[in-house]
Amino acid sequence: MSKNPNLVYDVQDRPPLLKIIIFGFQQLLAIMAATIAVPSIIGMPIQIPAALLGAGIGTIVYLLFTKGKSPVFLGSSFAFLGSLTLAVTYGYCGIILGSVFAGLVYVIIALIIKFVGTNWITKLMPPVVIGPTVAIIGLSLAGSAMGDMVKATADGINGGYNLIGLLCGLVTFFTVIIFSTQKRFKMMKLIPFILGIAAGYIVAAIFSAIGYAADVAYLKIIDWSPLVDNFKNVTVESFLTYPRFALIGGIQEIANQSVDATIINAVNTLIAKGSLPEGTVANILNGVSVAEIAIAFLPVAFVVFAEHIADHKNLGSVIGKDLVNNEPGLTRTLLGDGVGSIAGTVFGVCPNTTYGESVGCVAITKNASIVSIWMAAGMCIVLSFISPVMKLLMTIPNCVMGGVCLTLYGFIAVSGLKMIKDVDLNDNHNLFVVSAILIAGIGGLAIKIPYAVKDNGAVAKVITITSIATALILGIVTNLILTKVEKSKLGREPEGEEIADSVPAVEPVVEEKKEEE
């Protein structure tokens, strides 16, 4: 048991084997929804097993770099969605190159910190900048979570708002929070997400069974077709398969000098969704596309860097250790995150990053055992090869995962707000920085940089810096400008003028006149 009164299991504690397996599976469930969502969003749902494999490998790389002192999981990063949309048009080689660019940003920053220290980061991104940025990461995900919470996976006819789906999501949510806060059953307090997903799935299964039996589409909450289709023609692949990760696809592209059908289908899907313009064609990587991918990935890497710092500060506050300035230190965490992201993409399909969901799982369950993270990583790798388990996990309905995300995304948002609880918001400097970040981020302000034009002068291609990245940049610039103003002559009060002190002096005079009257 942990010596830390705020934890049940500390970082180096080793729970019994059965508990380790259960805790690892819970971490897997906590990060699964976001990890498998990224390949689906970029039009490559067939690569979901590869995404899990990459997350597991990336996490192991991270744990090795940090010497097993930072209990957090790495998964597919949503921050790179816009960048991946462009990279997909240049095949698997484009995706790998993008992750290398992003990972190199981490490596370079880590080397700078190694020789210069972290003071410049504190000045560039103090709590007044980092806090609201983390908050909008959670708030920006709120729409996705709540959209899922009212969605029934198998409700193909209605497709929109589903009240039964909301019920399943709420059952999941309340099960999680009840078992997280109750004090009688200690083991259940440690696995609230497993219990929540199980409760939501059971309720969804009951309604779905009725829906399929009575042929009522509105009640079909769960889509069991992935599991059913897996056993239609029973072969070895019905039980064991191998994820087709990016490295294999990239080698085939180089050998064949063309992209394969998976990439072509992904590009067509993105065009249909409006994520890519009409007429976009998938091509193999070339000199011009290298520059395009660099422009797409490098700015986003700095945003993920800010998220990295925030995650480790939050995690440090949970486990009672300074992970940034002490052990393992920002140099090691950045190297682990950057190299882990590259490895996760090469052996998966998406760039990775440390997950706020994982931090939230640690904070809510009070289980920081690093062995649980090792187990979760191992499970991701093993399960990505086991077809029935992968298909079963795919049947967990959106509404149930929405109920889980209501707690996890809420934790991310609140943890960001906690970082500014000691910031003096009566000071206009701080007030303007926080308000600029929150409003720009929540309002969806993005920067779109045109880099190609058509013959008629119209913009053909743009690089989009996401709203979170834009909000962070705006916050950093605002903070630097106001700091400069305060240090200049504009920040000093004119000599001989004490406006604030002159106002209260009037009040006693007025009261004396009243008493005389």
Q: Describe it for me?
A:
Mean pLDDT is 85; it is low at 499-506 and 509-517. The chain has helices at 17-41, 48-65, 81-88, 91-116, 119-124, 127-149, 163-181, 186-190, 192-214, 225-230, 246-256, 261-272, 287-319, 330-346, 356-365, 370-383, 387-394, 398-418, 428-443, 467-487, 499-502, 506-516, and strands at residues 74-76, 352-354, 447-453, 459-465. Helix content is 65%, strand content 4%. It is globular. The protein is mostly helical and 517 residues long. It has a two-stranded antiparallel sheet. It has one domain (17-422). Strand 3 (447-453) and strand 4 form a beta hairpin. The chain is built from 22 helices and 4 strands.
Mean pLDDT: 85
Query: Total strand count, please?
Result: 4
Note poorly predicted spans.
499-506, 509-517
- Tally of separate helices: 22
Query: Major β-sheet, in short?
Result: 2 strands, antiparallel
**Helix-and-strand structural type:** mainly alpha
